[in-house]
Amino acid sequence: MKKIAIIGGGISGLYIANLLGQNSSHKITIYEKNNSVNLEKGYGIQLSVNSIKLLNKIGFQNINLEDKFHPNKVDLYSLKNKKKICDLNISAFNDTEGKYTTLQRFTLINFLKDQLPDNFINYNKKVTKIDYESDNIEVTFENSTSIKCDYLVISDGIFSKSKSLIAKREIKPKYFKSIALRATIDGDSLHGIDPSNISLSLGSNLHSVLYPIDNRGQFNFISILKKKLSASELSDYSLFEKSDFISSILFEISKQVDPDIIKNLKNIKCFPIFISSEIHQPINKNTFLIGDAFFSFPPTFAQGASQSIEAAHELYKNLKKEDNQFNIERIKRTKMIDWKSKFNYFIFHLSNPLLIWVRDTSMKYFFKNNKFINSYLGKIYKN
């Protein structure tokens, strides 16, 4: 029986554990550094069709309909004149196997966790050392206990220490020179938008997204603001929890976002956005990276969770076939999505009036062009 150690109990780690758990020839254990899986109750995620089809393989379609939502379109607005620019029909990618879905993050995490036997997750297991022997891999934890495994799957997030351990050098993510403000808001507080769609508002050095996260009238709000921070500010993570800092970000956002939305926000959190500075390819035997540990994208395609699920599924197929093509295919796809995500960020944050006019005019045309949509989005939304 092959022993597979999964480092990290996030979306990608939990999903691949569900897949591998269906195969009795594997002994799977998740090692989570915290004392519980992070649920972040209340905040939403978006899952495009590519990931929904994969989640349905483990029963996701059976989740209560009240706990998820299927938006039809993305409505794009100008924050400057408060007018709608155009809309994008994302339901065009839906089929009988899956639909574009929004939901609360904890709904997905709980679903993935509840599918697993209790003994699949070991908590308070912070990795301090990884050694490679001739026949297996030895992982040592902070309390000096250790385990041996045949395969090591690293999925402990963008700040993965395990990735640095196997690379034998410190691998740090890159600050994307942007701050995210995330919050929840009740549907009763919203006016002038279609509540069945995702609303994407474009401003100067700022964009915001508002979308339903269930069928109970709960919405998620996130705003991405360009902001330079010093090295000392970035090293002090408590800064982003201080009321003065959060108030300053709210003030900046309120210069462009509807004040009625700002005053009705709840559960507000701020955090700096980090992205991967490189794609690391493990040279060690039977070691794989998935999720944000493999690569973290700029947040303009809402593909973080979807790509985590997709990569985990690709690795699952790789382990079944004992085929070493996983990283080759994943790198190619990652580079494509990363490039498009960064291009989106540039387009979303334009401040020059002429460039804004060109952007808005172009979107009105291209978003009606099926060939363009299938090329630009289809290559991401379809497996």
Describe this protein's structure.
By secondary structure, the protein is α/β, with parallel strands linked by helices. 32% of the residues lie in helices and 27% in strands. A hairpin with a 5-residue loop joins strand 5 (73-78) and strand 6. Helix 1 (11-20) packs parallel to helix 8 (304-321) and helix 2 crosses helix 8 (304-321). The longest helix has 23 residues, at 326-348. It is globular.
Question: Would you summarize the structure shown here?
Answer:
This protein has 383 residues and is of the alpha/beta class. Helices cover 32% and strands 27% of the residues. α1 (11-20) packs parallel to α3 (105-114), α1 (11-20) packs parallel to α8 and α2 packs across α8.
How are the strands of the biggest sheet laid out side by side?
6-5-14-15-16-13-17
* Counted beta strands: 18
Radius of gyration: 21 Å
The helical percent reads 25-40%
Distance between the termini: 30 Å
The biggest beta sheet reads:
7 strands, mixed
Q: Tell me the fraction of residues in β-strands, as a range.
A: 25-35%
Low-confidence stretches: none
Mean pLDDT metric: 93
Q: What secondary-structure arrangement, pairings included, does this model have?
A:
Blueprint: E1 2-7, H1 11-20, E2 26-31, E3 44-47, H2 49-55, E4 68-69, E5 73-78, E6 84-89, E7 101-104, H3 105-114, E8 121-122, E9 127-132, E10 137-141, E11 146-149, E12 151-154, H4 161-167, E13 174-186, E14 198-202, E15 206-212, E16 218-226, H5 231-235, H6 243-254, H7 259-263, E17 266-275, E18 287-289, H8 304-321, H9 326-348, H10 353-366, H11 370-376, H12 378-381
Parallel strand pairs: 1-2, 1-12, 2-8, 5-14, 12-18
Antiparallel strand pairs: 3-7, 4-7, 5-6, 9-10, 10-11, 13-16, 13-17, 14-15, 15-16
